Amino acid sequence: MVIHIEEFTTPEKHFSDILSAVEHTGECIVETPGAIYTLKPDALERLTRLSKTLSTTNFFPMLRDRGPGCDGCIPEREKNLSRVVTSLKRGKHRKAQKYLKDIVIKDYTQCKGCETVTFDIVSRLEEVLELTQISVTDFTRTPVITSFSKYFPEKYRVEEEYEVPIPGGLSFRVRLLDTERGIYYDPLLPVESLGIKGMNTLNKAIKKIGESSSPRKTMENELDEGTLLSVANNYLYGLGNIQYLIYDKRLTDIYIYPSGAVDVSSYDRDMECTLKLTSRGLEDLASSYRRLTGEYFFESNPLSIYFWEKHNCRISAIGYTGNYTKKPDFAIRIWPEKPWHILNFVHVGSMDFETAAILTAAANFGVGAIVGGGRGTGKSTMLQTFLFMVPRHARKIGLFTAREIHSWFTERRFRISEMRVHTGDEVSSRGVPISRAVKQMLVHGESSYILFNEIKYREEAIPFFTAAAAAGMSSLLTTLHTDSAEGVVQRLLLDFDIPVTALRTIRWIPMTILDRKAGSAYKHRVFGDLVEILPFKEDPLKEDKIKHLITYDAKREAWRYAGVEKLTDKNMKDFVKESDFLHIEGERRGLNNEGVAEYILLFRDVYKEIDNMYPLEAPNADTFLDLMEHLFTSFPKKGFGGKDRDKILRKWRVCIKR
Question: pTM of this prediction?
């Protein structure tokens, strides 16, 4: 007997149907849109025993067998007894316990006969009471593999094909289809090539795996063929069909809608996907998500966020009571396999060498900065590039509300002391209160930089900025969602109401933007603006203390610099004059404007040489880190003196050739 339901997370709600199936067919199979659940043998034996006890034992004559003169109490006892039996048949464990207690505590012991019959009945019922306990773990779950369809536009041209590697030494092919309606992303999933025989083998194996006490070992024994093993692993321990898209490192975002439609985004464009999940596929994805996160993503908890560190992606889930469709809706943000450094931005045309060098010099001067930008413009990616710009061993403290700083940094011995924080008042599984974390930060040793992954709420902004200002810490790095540098200041002063002294810890606001031409499917993330906050009394906006040092000209697709038309070796010092921060911080280090210009040009020359060494694509993060470490060790022991550019470059070239 098969029970068809939409969701199977609470079997006790369907207990009477499950018990009925066991009584009539000797088995129970529950089918949902996402999986098939089969009752395990031990649970089947338990429910069979319960069914036989309740159907073959007639308790009611026992009430009249003994105890003469008890006619007055028999109706009450029969009533409670009937309630117990009914509750047991419906799987209402707690109610059955309550009515059972009522039979005992009533004054039914006026004579020896009543006492005997009462406790005789209770002892018989207590034997089967625990048999009503049931949970999802009493069922073997078999995911439904073929839970998607494919849609192809009528006319298309294959613009590009490439292979995506997956675990086990395998791969799958992706085609980009050029159509009148834009580019379609067409993944040729391994499950599509299995055929009927392969699908049957896979489903039988998955059932055995679900019943096994050692699922991974059973999976390896049952499936020795590469493709079958890979597919089974994705469905049992990953996100099923969507798991394959996560393996494609060209993608930055995956969107799964309640209709089953799937869209994807790469670095430079948004695409519709030929893959479409069925209702069963959507529920299978939700079930896989619950298994992966351990969260109860259902009616009482319809919103969920999970950072999957293994694949360096963030999953946002909405569904059930959280939206009107009551169907799952997912958004998956995928970060690069390794973090981006500044030359990655240069290589894709997001900034030029001069801007990269200016940011690097400022980072080594300890500039306090908020990286601003809209959604998906690369704020967090830009923030992490600052970690490459300063020596790896420079100590940093990070306050993170989410795991959005790439684990690569801690694995490569970057000196980052991190604290997991939240806006609540108590220590919990989500971390420690941010108010306590900033106090700890003040005594947790000296640091070159204080990092915060993103300022979203007033409860985060005030303790973070005010504590840093009180301690004289100006080397802050964080991000903020806004469309302009002026918007950053407005949010801090008006929305967050932070004190003026705290705002003074921020000197630069680098802005990332999405340059998208009207009507085009292509998008270009670029470094859009660099703003400096000049010394002010109360409000830098009203006092006109906001200065644009670098601005992106979308029409020319080039950058404009304050004080000069185009940056050269000769006029770099004129640009330095325009920046109050560079001028003052240079003087503190014994450098005049020309010396600071030489310092910036040193980084520019290094970046250009690295780019010439790797003309096809930017070097990977490990290589770039090595090259930068060689650069920092090439500096004189007393530091940059203003005229050491050529000497440092020569020494660096020798170091990297070894």
Answer: 0.73
